[in-house]
Specification:
The chain is mainly α. It is built from two helices and two strands, in the order ααββ.
Length: about 80
């Protein structure tokens, strides 16, 4: 039973795309990478002023972080 559960858990990893291999030039993956890089903000660009929530769920504006080193973590933290 445990071996079956382990194999079901690891199976998607065996077919996952390798992240250390760049897509071939001109391929669909290459187009997506280029679109992402074109839309991504430049390193050192100002973070947009928008309302977000802290770890306690309290809303605040990112503009209050101006001038301070900040790490922004997005996604589900559970």
């Amino acid at each position: 039973m445990r071996l079956g559960l382990l194999l079901m858990t690891l199976a998607p990893l065996a077919t996952a795309q390798r992240m250390d291999v760049l897509p071939q030039p001109g391929s669909a993956g290459d187009v997506v990478v280029k679109q992402f890089e074109a839309a991504a903000p430049a390193v050192g660009a100002a973070f947009p002023a928008l309302p977000i929530h802290d770890e306690a769920g309290k809303p605040f504006h990112t503009s209050s972080l101006k001038g301070r080193w900040t790490v922004v973590v997005s996604g589900c933290l559970t």
